[in-house]
Amino acid sequence: MAAKAKKRKVDKEDRRFQERWKLQYFFTESRNNCVCLICKQSVAIAKEFNVKRHYQTTHANAYDKFTGSDRAEKVKQLEAGLASQQRLFTRAKDSIENSTKASYEVVLIAKHGKPFTEGEFVKDCVDGG
Predict the structure, then answer these.
(1) For residue 51, what are the domain limits?
(2) Is residue 81 part of a domain?
């Protein structure tokens, strides 16, 4: 019997985003993922073959016209758009969390049925209910 072949573990290969991929393929690193600046999709594994294949099959026709400083400017513009989009989702998440906290506080007020100036109620709020 042949010995079992050892399976390759991709996560152990220490693959990292390469800065040169920004200009070559319009990719950036976001939250430990390689993300396409054009369509915001991420590749499964951070290796040049995957990044290059995505760019060539999806965006090369439209973006190969950018060269030199025009290409660098387009990368900056797309990075700013991605950052703006991520901030928008972060703000929305924070807003939802704040609304949830406020609703719990309203429930706490209703549960006690007493004026908020009463000392015991204030202690409950400080202790977290």
Answers:
(1) 13-102
(2) yes
Condensed to tens digits (0 to 9), the pLDDT of residues 84-116 reads 777 766 666 777 777 777 777 767 666 766 665
Instruction: Tell me which residue of 66, 61, 59 sits closest to 23, measured CA to CA.
Output: 66
Q: What's the number of domains the chain is made of?
A: 1
121: in domain: no
Residue 88 is assigned to a structural domain of this protein: yes
Contact by Cβ (8 Å): 52, 26: no
- Please say whether the beta carbons of 34 and 42 come within 8 A: yes
pTM exceeds 0.70 for this model: no
* Spatial separation of the C-alpha atoms in residues 59 and 53, rounded to whole Å: 10
Residue 7 lies in a domain: no
Give the three-state DSSP class for 27. Answer: strand
What is the structure's pLDDT at 8?
65
Contact in structure between 124 and 104 (CB atoms under 8 Å): no
